[in-house]
Sequence to fold (348 residues):
Amino acid sequence: MADFQSAVKKINANLQKIMEELQKKEVMDAIGQVVSESIAKRTRQGSGVKEYGEEKEKLAALKPSYVNFREKTIKLDTTTTPGKSNLTLTGEMLSDIYHTAEEGKVTIGFRSLFSNNKAYWAHFPEGKNAGRAPRPFFHFSKTEIKRAYGMLRAKMKAVISDLF
Amino acid sequence: MAKAYNIKFTAHVPTLLTGAERVEIGRKVIDHILYRTRSQSKDKDGNSFPGYTKGYKKSLDFRNANKTGKVTLTLTGDMLDTLDILSHGEGYIDIGYETGSGEADKVEGNVIGSYGRTANASKARDFLGISESALKTIVDEVVAASPEERAIMAFVNSPTANQQINAILQNVGLEPLQDIEEGF
Fold:
C-alpha cells in the first residue's frame, strides 16, 4: 500500500492521462445524452432558461386567443394541452434535440434546420412572430451544468482509482 | 417564489476531520439521500413516502416524465440534483438548497407536506436529512480510507480538479440558432 504522498505524486504524474480519459468520446457522448434529454424534458415540463447557467424559469403563458386556436384547430401532440406553455404543438422541435460527440467535445443541436429555426423564433420572436413573448429554452441551466459536472467528477474518481 | 433563506439540514460530524473529508462525507450523504429517495422511496427516517394522489398521476407533467406510481420525487430530476453542500466547518456540514434556489418551494412543499397549501405532516415526504446511523456509517468509511483513497479524495475535491472539469465543460456546447425564415 502506497503512502499518501506517493499516491498524490502518482496522481500528479498521470494528470495528462486522466484528462485524456475524461475526454474520450464515450464520456462526452454520455454527457451529451444526459444534457440534451434534460433540455427537452425541462422544456416539455414548461420551463425555459434565459442565459447560460441561470436557474430555469416558467415559460411565458400562452395568449387566450392562441389557447383557443390550439383547442379548436390543431391536433396537439400528447405531451401538451391547449393551455400548456411548453413549446409543443406537434412535438417535433423538442424531439429533434440531439447531440453529437467526439473526443473532447459535445454539441447539442437539432436534427433538422426547421426545428433549429423554430427554436430561434421561440428565443427571438420577430418578423411574422413579433408580438409573441420570448420563450428562451435552448441554454444549459445551472442544474444541467451541475449534472454534467457531477458525471465528470464521478468519472475522474473512477479513472484515478484505476491507477492504484 | 424563491425563498430568501436556505432550506437545509446540518450533518454533525467529528471536529477533527479535514476539509476534504467533510466534503467527501457531504457528497456521500447526498448520494445516500438520492439513492434512498429514488430507489427506496423512503424519507430521512426510513418511512415509506405517501403515494402520489390520483390527480397528480393523471396530470400531463406526470405523463410527460414517464413516471410510474413509484414515489421518487423526480419529475425533471432537478429538485434532487440541485441538492448540494452549502458550507462546512469544524464539526458540521450544511446540506441543502442555496438562498434563491428555484427548487426551494418544491422542496419545502415536500418537506412539510404543503404543496402550495397548508402544511400537512401526513402528506409530507421529508427527504432532506439522514439518520444518525447512516451518517455514522459514512463518517466511519471516510475516516477509515486508505492513503490512496485519501489522495483521490483530496484530488477530486481540489481546485485543480475543479479547473480541469470546468475546462472540459467549456467544450460542451449548443449549436447556434438560425433565422432562416426567408428560406421558406
Notes: Chain B has a mean pLDDT of 92. The helical segments of chain B are 19-38, 54-57, 60-64, 78-81, 104-112, 132-143, 147-156, 159-169. The beta strands of chain B are 7-12, 84-89, 92-97, 172-174.
